[in-house]
Prior knowledge:
The complex is a heterodimer.
Chain A: E1 3-7, E2 10-12, E3 18-25, E4 34-39, E5 45-51, E6 58-60, E7 68-73, E8 78-83, E9 92-99, E10 111-114, E11 118-122
Parallel strand pairs in A: 2-11
Antiparallel strand pairs in A: 1-3, 3-8, 4-5, 4-9, 5-6, 7-8, 9-10, 9-11
Chain B: E1 4-7, E2 10-13, E3 19-25, E4 33-38, E5 45-49, E6 53-54, E7 62-67, E8 70-75, E9 85-90, E10 96-97, E11 101-105
Parallel strand pairs in B: 2-11
Antiparallel strand pairs in B: 1-3, 3-8, 4-5, 4-9, 5-6, 7-8, 9-10, 9-11
Amino acid sequence: EVQLVESGGGLVQPGGSLRLSCSASGFTFSSFSMNWVRQAPGKGLEWVSYISGSSTTRYYADSVKGRFTISRDNAKNSLYLQMNNLRAEDTALYYCVRDSYCGGECFPYYFDSWGQGTLVTVSA
Amino acid sequence: DIQMTQSPSTLSASVGDRVTITCRASQSISSWLAWYQQKPGKAPKLLIYKASNLESGVPSRFSGSGSGTEFTLTISSLQPDDFATYYCQQYNTYETFGQGTKVEVK
């Protein structure tokens, strides 16, 4: 069974930093591209960032470009999101999300597995 | 950026009803569209990919159609478990979601 478990969320002041982690199990992690998708309280879904299985390709939404960095450690079956210079509008539930298998690097693509999310609150 | 617009934003329906949700793209996305279901406090769940392909394990009462800029998600006979919010997602150019359609009890 595919499992994605996020951690690292919390309350941070504007301008602060936070590092999110996602622990993956139940599948060959290195074979899948991964993403972070966020959802502000009571709002819709927003794709944040993508990383290919080998980490060779990374993409970011314009809203986070230059502030967030996605990375992964395939030996630890883990995905990360380093978030710097956080703003109030970054407040959201952050989901770790797996691309459906496509046999290579297929960006953009659709998502077949989601974690339960970790809440990030940016407030003074 | 490709904008995705869903209609209606809220839909009131009864068990057994046929329900249709529309998703329009601001430019052609071919068939690169997925549909997700989200229940309160839960993560989204994939229902449909490439506009009309049913994800494994999803009940056959769900179906998708369309191409280009206009797409629909249809639930042929609404069940109690189907009251939820539904999102479309384009994956033609980056990935963007519609604003969601909440299906509520009439």
